[in-house]
Design a protein that fits this description.
alpha/beta, TIM Barrel, about 15% strand, 8-stranded parallel barrel, 11 helices, 3-stranded antiparallel beta sheet, globular, single chain
Amino acid sequence: MLYSLARPLLFSLDPECAHDLSLWSMRNLGGWMPSSCLESEAVEVMGIRFPNRIGLAAGLDKNGEAIEALASFGFGHLEIGTVTPRAQPGNPKPRMFRLPTKTAIINRMGFNNQGVDNLVAHVKACRFKGVLGISIGKNFDTPIDNAADDYIACLDKVYGHASYVAANISSPNTKNLRQLQGASELDSLLARLKQRQTELAELHGRYVPIALKIAPDVDDDQLTNIADALRRHRIDGVIATNTTLSRDAVQGLAHSNEAGGLSGAPLRERSTEVVRALAVKLGGEVPIIGVGGITEGTHALEKLQAGAALVQLYTGFIYRGPKLISDCVKATREFERDAPETIA
């Protein structure tokens, strides 16, 4: 109810200003609904017990500034970041654009964040005890050949504070980043991440899963290579998908030619296709977190039926507010009646 009253004001503002105002309000005024996780069947994924299957995707709270307020909306998990080793301003503004007739957003933020040390300080200061994923990336000026160094640097810093870590190699807004999805580059990166994960597990006395976030703009051969690499390196999960460079569904609309990644309803079918294809290629060996185009509860159910164990929201949450979370949790109960408690 409160969000329905606030939305006209927020949508009258520049999208990034509205985003910043929303985070400020949550940080200073708290969440907009009673603090509790929405009732659902708990599920175990990546060795973690999630109180429900609906999570917040990375990108909304890049610096971990509003964790407790976001948790109050009823998410079963939160993913903060993407964070880089050093603070960086991101791409020049304006860099976020609404396409309201398509329930979509185009952004070219470029991993704008205050750096991994700042994020860790926020996590340490908050009282949230739920499932917290931390998404990590590389600085824009780190050569692609040295990208793994940035991921390892972030992994070292966040490992002791995360329920799981997401390696984001699929944002279209950092030059050459998606090159890391290539067969040789991915093999090298995952080998280093897995080795360091093993070392950190010994150091901390605690195993923290690693998930890989991939793009929707991959062909079947690339997806096969990714699935093979995930299994070969025993990566704990895969997040499918990030935003798309495709503009097929928004041709002719205002802002449709803006550079950046398109998210929201136009991404739904493609992201679900990737989830479904991955489910076949992985054969249940690696759990999938489905993201992209979820604007109704039935869309969350669709991702689960395609093979996802969990789903995440972002653009739909911006357009519909907290009600979308409860709608998705309710829709997933149909799936839970037939699904095993432990997915992977």
